[in-house]
Each structure stands twice: as C-alpha cells, then as structure tokens.
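note to self: the first set is below, dont mix up w the second
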Amino acid sequence: MAWRCLVVFNVISVIIGSSSGYEPTWESIDSRPLPEWYDQAKFGIFIHWGVFSVPSFGSEWFWWYWQKQHMQPYVNFMKNNYPPGFQYQDFAHQFTAEFFNAKEWVDIFASSGAKYIVLTTKHHEGFTLWGSKTSWNWNAVDVGPKRDLVGEVAAALRSGSDLRLGLYHSLFEWFNPLFEQDAASGFKTRLFPDAKSLPELYDLVNTYRPEVLWSDGDGDAPDQYWNSTGFLAWLYNDSPVRDTVVTNDRWGYGSICKHGGYYTCADRYMPGHLLARKWENCMSIDRKSWGYRREAPLGDYLTIEQLITTLVETVSLGGNLLLNVGPTHDGRISPIYEERLRQVGGWLRVNGEAIYNSTAWRAQNDTLTPNVWYTYGPQRKAVYAFLLDWPKDGVVDLGAPVLSSPGRTQVEMLGYGSLQWNPMKPSGVQVRLPLLAFNQMPCQWAWALKITGVA
C-alpha cells in the first residue's frame, strides 16, 4: 500500500508541479524571467532542413503549394521533371544526407560568431529528423539517410563548441489525417496533439535537452487545443532544461507577439523601436526561401553589408538575430551560405565587444549623422556607435552622446585604437577617423566606436 501511495504522489507531483512552480496559465508562464544567457548571446543560426530540401525548388512550402494550392510553377516543375503518379512522399527516399558531417556544420556555425543554433526537427510536412515513435516511416531513421540527424548535430555541438542547442518543432502538419479531423470539428477534438505533437515535444526535450525550443505552425488552432500552457509549465518546472531553456511566442493562434519567453511577432521582424519584452528577428540569407533552392540566383541572397546592417540594427533595438541557412538534401552547407557566415564571424571577432552582452542604449539612432546605431556595454560602462558608412571627409558628428566629464571621455575604434575627438555645442562629440588604406582597416562593412565618459 505504501508503494502505491508513493507512485500516486509522484504522478500527481509531475502533473501539478511544486507549489512554487509555474502554473499552466499564460499569466504564470509569462512571468518567468528570461534566462540571462539568451539576451547576452545576440546571434544564432537557424537551419531549415527536411524532405523539402530534395526538390529544392521555390520554397520549403513546396508540398503545400504543389498539392493544396496547385500553384502553376510547382505543378509545371513536377510535370516537367517527374513521372506521372510521383508523390511527395517519394522524395523522402532521395533525402540521403550522404555528405552530412555534423562536425563540419558545427565548425561553420561556430566560425560565424553565433552563440546558439536552432535546427528544424520537423517542419509542416511532418517528416522528423530523428526517430520519432509517432512518425513511423516518415522520419530520417526509417527512411532516407536512416540516421538520427538531430542526435548527430547535438553530439557534435556539445563535444566541439560552446554553441547552445536549439530545436524547432512545428505543432501542426499540413496533411496529417488526425489534424484534418480535429480541424473539421472546429478543434473540439484533440486527437492530433495528444497522439502526435505533444509526445514529440516531450521526446525532444527529454532526449536532446535543447536550450531553445522554437515552436511554430499552429494551424489556426488555439493554444488550448495544443495544451501549450500545460506543456510549458512542465518545461519550466520539471524538465531537464527547466533552468536554462528559452521559448518563443508561437504556441497557438493568437499567442504570437503576446505570450511566451520572447517575441518573434513575424518572420523577418524588425519593430523599428524598443519593445517591452525580449524579441528575435528570424530571417534568411535567401530572401525568398528558408529551405535550399537550386534555382536561386545570386541576387536573391543578402549581401554581407545587408547582413551586418541587420545584425547591428537588431541588437541596437534590443533583439537577437536568428540567421537562417538551408542545407542541401545530401547534407552540404553551400559555399554562398558558408561565406556569409564566416564573413559575419570575421566582423564579430573585431566588434563583438559592442554586440555580445550589450543592452539597448537610451538612443538607438544618432540625431545628427544617419546610419549610426548605438548599443551600451554595462560591464565596461561604454557607449558603442556603429558607423554603417565611412564618411568621405573622415569626420563623424555624433549628437546623441552627452559629455558628463569631458576630461574623462575617450573615443576609440574597435580593432584600431584611440581617436581624436572634440566636444560639440550644445552637446555631442565630433570624431576624426584615421587615414587608413583599405588593407589597414580593422574590418569591413561597419565600424564600432567605443565611447567612455558620457552620460
């Protein structure tokens, strides 16, 4: 009898959590402080990989656009390249990953200066990159590469880098019969989340212990249907990553930009002003797709100048940048993606002091000179001014800094050293940049001035 009581007590404890834990309500869930590491990280890598990487045409929404919306470019692509009767499921056998090397991926991601990654474990197509027990014969262990791709990435990440593991998971699946049945009932039944989505989430957390759980794809179903607050209460109270895990805001229809650990609000989101809550700008190097596209011309890829500008603007406004790459079906990170990531990493090796561990300053833009963005480094008590343009006359007028003790004010360029400056009236600082040849520049694309001794 005592053994039975102990079992019942343990089960109840798991369900309701401790009295000091988080309750399964948004009011309680939203009150959880964001783990400090995430705000300090500033920069992460998104990875969209799945069966959609096989056709690698148009978008990672290939299946939906072809079979549901019957968009002509996708219909013509299949008609011209595949035999009659070919189904989307047949692509899974061609998702081979023969060139996939998790250690090589980690080397590229680490070289970018990113502090965390987010891997798509399952997109809206429903195919899982690990051996999900609820995705029989529609996962990377049973078909295609026949490997636990999530496990390989997690192991390589933890054995050879300081990167933190994040996992993306789509709540719904376009053509899952259980989800379609629930949708037909107006989501009054919960067959799909109980049998598929929730078991997968628990499995991912317990097996791989991610420190970012990036939810997506609510299928227009409310959070009550997904039991989001119940799952998040377990995640924050009793999961193996309860102290360090962070979550986003995509936990059901109406929750985006309203609930969760941090806000994403929309893809490629840039608010233009400070938000009351931590936010993330998820965007892709390819302007038109998150997954790899074979037909993408060079002009569809963002330039390094555009990426650095986006990183600076995002961090200045208090956000994190989650920059996406789309691997090929055989597991390669294409050279255009690798080049962009290594370029960002080279820039961060010079200017990372002004990015990592920074906070938003009282001013985000300068009042006199355009294309100047600010951050603040509380540890060094320094203001950082990012110049996105090098002035033709070598002089920069900064109107936002207010000199509290001019005799103690210093200005330097990261990667170079001290600079000459003069106070301006009624306030501000005029900085004279050094005369440097191109090969003497501390970096390219943008330059950070470190200013100390200002209010």
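second set (the one i keep forgetting abt)
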Amino acid sequence: MSETNRAARAGDLLAVVSQSGPTVSFFDAASDRLLGTVETLAEPHELCFDPVHRLLWCTNAYYSGYYHANSGRRSELTVLDPDTRQIVAVVDLAPEHGPHGLSLDAQRGRMYVSVEGSAERTGGVVVLDTATRRPIGRIDTGADGPHWFVAAPDGTIGYASNKEAPFVSVVDLLDGTLLDRVEVPGSEGLAVSEDGSRVYVAGPYASIGGAKPSAASGIRVIDTKLRSVVEVLPTENVVVPVHLTSTGKLLAGQVRTGPGDGLGRQDPGLLTVFSAADHTELGRVEVGRCPLTITSSADGRLGYVSGVLDSTVDVIELDSLTRLARLEIPRRGEPGAHGLAYLPRARS
C-alpha cells in the first residue's frame, strides 16, 4: 500500500469477530496493527457500525456451535465503544433468539436484526431504536431461518435471505409487514445497490455437511421494482458473502470444498469481483478457507475477507487483486474469523 493510501486511512479501524474467541479485535486500518481485543458473550457472529452514536453492534447467535449445529440459541446483542474498546451494553431480545444479520438506517435511528423462528412464530426482523438501544418492533419474514438482512438506502424496504426457504423475504420497514417473496433456491449473503434498484443474493444455501446444492451456484440479481430475479451471475462454487463497494464493485466469496466434504475440508476460498454496472467479472484471487464475511474500506480501494476455517482476514487491493496482508485472528477452536466492520475515523 502506498504512503498516500496509508495516510488516507489514518485513524480508521477494522473490527473483526472471532466466533470461537469469543472476541472482537480492532486493527489500525492504515498499518494493519492489532490495537486490542474485547472478549464477548459466546458465539459472536456479525457486526454493524453506527457512525451517529459511534458504536459497534455485534450479534451473539448461539451458546456454542453454528447454524444447524449448536447447543442452543442466544438472544443477545453486544454493543461496543470502538474507541475505548469496551462493552457499553448487552441488549437482550428474549424471547427472540438466534440473532444474526444486522442493518442500520442511520437517518431514522433504526437497527434491524434478523432472528430465527420458533414453534410459536416464524423468523423475523427485530427493530431497535439506536438511541435507547431498545426493541420497538418486529416484522415477520415468513421463514424460519432468516440469516442476513439488508435495508434499502432510503430505509423503506428490507430484504432477508433465508437459507432453506426458497425465497428472499421483502418487508415494508415503515408498516412493519411482509410485502412479498422473491423466488430464490435458498440464499446466503445479500447486498443492495446504492440506488436501491437491485439486490444481489448469493444462492443456493451452502451446506457444509456435504449435501449437494439445490440449484446452480451464483449470484441472483433481483430487480426491486419487478421483485423478481432478472439475471444470474454464475460461479463455479457456492457463494456465501456478497458486498458492494463505494466504487461500484460487487465482491463475492466462493467456498471451495476439497476431498471428503464436511467442515474443515475446504480448499482456499475465492474472492471474485464483478462490475456492478454491467456485471462483467473483473477478476479473482485466493483467500482463506470458507469465506464468510466481506467488507471494504470507505474509499473502496481495499477489500477485507474473513476465512472462518483459517481464522484469518485477507486484505486485498481491489484494483490489482493482490493480497497486501493476512491478519491472524485469535481463536480457541473451530470456527474462527467471521463478522467484519470498517470504521472511518471520528470527524471533528
């Protein structure tokens, strides 16, 4: 990285979850130096940064294990101060459980978190007030396992991916209702375009236990006005995370399975980069095994990919598709690195 690029990121932070840590680690985004680590409740998963209150939200999904292989579902969110690197609150969503995906509407002061269903009700999205850090509503998604969730840029519509259910849930964030179901053969990560016209959804569901995918792997492109899939960007392997950069690049993490299948037998993953403008593939680069989360720097120059089985985060220069660094994330076992958040420095 050039000195100019390092200077542009001075004071920025990268936060990384270690699922088995269980910790959130903070790195200097300019130097990749580890600044400190905060221990959390068991099984932290995803992160979301609220720049208005300058707080970092973290979901704690299970008591141990992971989706479909856990000892019970937690109900908490951990809220951290990234500058002092301290926990400022633990928000209990009980009786809701299995929180995972997070999405922020900073303008309305709303944090959305996907939660798993129970015998009494389907999965859904819990709405929290970011000022009081209290739940103020719930939206049913019509599926038991909503995993990732993203709100449209204008804050009116939201989209939940559902691992086993054959659709993406479309919800009205203002009325708190389920609007529609867009047919997708099981889904993983998703991202919405800056103008809200397209949603990119990874599918089908990535079964680590060796089950064959239910459909051809790739990224489904949803036209949000038509509420239907209008294109599929094909990939050789199942994709889990997707991410859109500020410079119009679509990043996808392919999970490559080695001989024998099963957790721990994956080959190095692939970060595949597409143009969000015309959907052409721009290139690819190897990353850690089983990429689960992707984020990027505020200027869109760097991509960050967590490889859960290696417990690493690869720092990728997106123009040249070269790896600049590999960050080692602390862990106590398997799995390891998971959620990511890029935090621009505080502005005076």
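remember for set 2: The mean pLDDT is 93.
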